[in-house]
Amino acid sequence: MTTTTAVPVAAPQQATEVSGIAASDPVRLSARGVHLAYDQRTVVHGVDLEIPPGRVTVIVGANGCGKSTLLRALARVLRPSRGRVELDGEDLQRLRPKDVAAVLGLLPQQPLAPEGITVADLVGRGRHPHQGAFRRWSAADTEAVSRALALTDLHDLAARRVEELSGGQRQRVWLAMMLAQDPRIMLLDEPTTYLDIAHQVDLLDLLADLNETSGTTVVMVLHELNLAARYADHLVVMHEGRVLREGAPADVLDAECVQAAFGLRASVVPDPVTGAPMVVPAGRRRGRVA
Ligand SMILES: Nc1ncnc2c1ncn2[C@@H]1O[C@H](COP(=O)(O)OP(=O)(O)O)[C@@H](O)[C@H]1O
Ligand SMILES: [Mg+2]
Fold first, then answer.
1. Which are the contacts of 270, defined by CB distance < 8 A and separation ≥ 6?
2. Per-residue pLDDT tens for 88-135?
3. Weakly modelled stretches of the chain, pLDDT under 70
4. For atom 27 of ligand 1, which residue has the closest CA?
5. Ligand 1 mean position to 58 CA, how many Å?
6. 37 lines ligand 1 (CB under 6 A)
7. I need a labelling partner for 234 at 20 to 30 A (CA). Which of 17, 70, 159, 279 fits?
8. What is 29-281's CATH number, 3.40.50.300, 3.40.720.10, 3.90.25.10, 3.30.565.10?
9. Domain extents in the chain
10. Measured from the CA of 63, which atom of ligand 1 is nearest?
11. Angle CA 147–132–21, to nearest 5
């Protein structure tokens, strides 16, 4: 049977508050001395991280350094073997799943859709945390789904089966599901995978707009360093299960950091469009342009 890891855990009742915090307050998400292990193998070693509320945080690092693992812990999917993740100072593991689902949304790296589900139905599942015990569909749900489909340019595909779509279209469906869920904190694991460069920029612009207009906190793993530097307010560079450096991209991303995190010799120059740091790999080849 296929499962959908991105679908929030069953979440009855209108749950827009975590422990009495008003819906307009920023929600603080932090990792305190978090260790994460698969079986006996620890892959994240004592990470301390404060996610700046209402800002865009981007996590980068070499393959296998623990980015997805850390993101899953921030989303309550993985339980730390030591330390804890806190939502507004409370241990995430102790909060009720429905309270967490109303505040936190996760778009995993490789989400799986239930067989045969249509685009509209999958996006509609994003509304579960907002629905009552009997999952009564409301006008607000219809409106949220319609808005999510419009923002991701998916209205024309609403009746199609998700499995018939291209990788890029499917990625947009998962994003739409999270938009319909409308969580205060969005956690996204490589959301630009499968997208061509134009759609990558579209998606990142959409998230940046959402962050600006609604104050949604965005935390995402990106593997494209230059897009990461351009869209991050706060950049977290991981290396072998630890945070190597964090801060504003301009303060963090230099040649030494790229060498330490990726083992790559590179120049870091200002991005001609935004002035953000831009990584230009040295490589061994000088190219063919005379
Ligand atoms: N489900 C799993 N079971 C066992 N080991 C895993 C699992 N997922 C990831 N790992 C291991 O944990 C380490 C970190 O993986 P991951 O967090 O996926 O890295 P990244 O997202 O930075 O590429 C890797 O060594 C990977 O092999
Ligand atoms: Mg990963």
1. 276, 277, 278
2. 999 999 999 888 988 999 999 888 899 999 999 999 999 988 877 677
3. 1-25, 133, 289-290
4. 64
5. 18
6. no
7. 17
8. 3.40.50.300
9. 29-281
10. 23
11. 80
